[in-house]
Amino acid sequence: MNALYAITQADPRYDMEAYLFLREALEFTVRKMKKTTHGPLRHVTGAELAEGFREYAIEQFGPLTYAVLTTWGLACTADIGAIVFNLVEAGELGKTDQDKPEDFNNLYDFHETFRKPFIPSKSKEDPSNE
Fold first, then answer.
1. Which terminus of the chain has a lower count of CB atoms within 10 Å, N or C?
2. H-helix or E-strand containing 22?
3. How far is the first Cα of the chain from the last one, in angstroms, to the nearest whole number?
4. Structural domain tally of the chain?
5. Could you tell me if residue 105 is inside a domain?
6. Whose CA is closest to 85, among 127, 5, 22?
């Protein structure tokens, strides 16, 4: 917790909850990869982590996902990368020589992914739709 406190003091863009959630999303992603792969577990790529983050967030928060994430300061997949690399710099996560923050750029749109699927569509039988 002390490391997270130091990170959030140095970079206040993201709430401490975002860091805690990212760690949970990483564990979720690793467990999912372990189920689908045979043999030793390999390094999780930025794209794989972002996808696991997406799945886990929707599983945890459903229609509130977008609101929760934006409250914590996350607005795009690049923010996931920024949190990851803040944790790497603090010695809380490891990385390979090939890993870079840009691996998280523009992987999906937060609004399209976390908000749009939960916006009710107007029914064709709805008289206000005419």
1. C
2. helix 16-36
3. 55
4. 1
5. yes
6. 22
Domain extent, residue 25, equals: 2-118
Q: What is the pLDDT along the chain (130 residues), one digit of tens a residue?
A: 689 999 999 999 999 999 999 999 999 999 988 877 665 667 899 999 999 999 999 999 999 999 999 999 999 999 999 999 999 999 999 999 999 999 999 999 999 999 988 888 875 455 554 4
Establish if 61 belongs to a structural domain: yes
CA distance 63 to 69: 11
Residue 76, C-beta contacts closer than 8 angstroms, at least 6 positions apart: 106, 109, 110
Do 104 and 22 form a contact (C-beta atoms < 8 A)? no
**How far, in Å, CA of 25 to CA of 40, rounded?**
20
User: Alpha-carbon distance 90 to 105, whole Å?
Assistant: 21
CA quadruple 45, 48, 49, 50: dihedral, nearest 10: 120
How far apart, in whole angstroms, are the C-alpha atoms of residue 11 and residue 4? 10
Residue 123 inside a domain? The answer is no
Q: Which residue has the tokens 């390979």?
A: 96
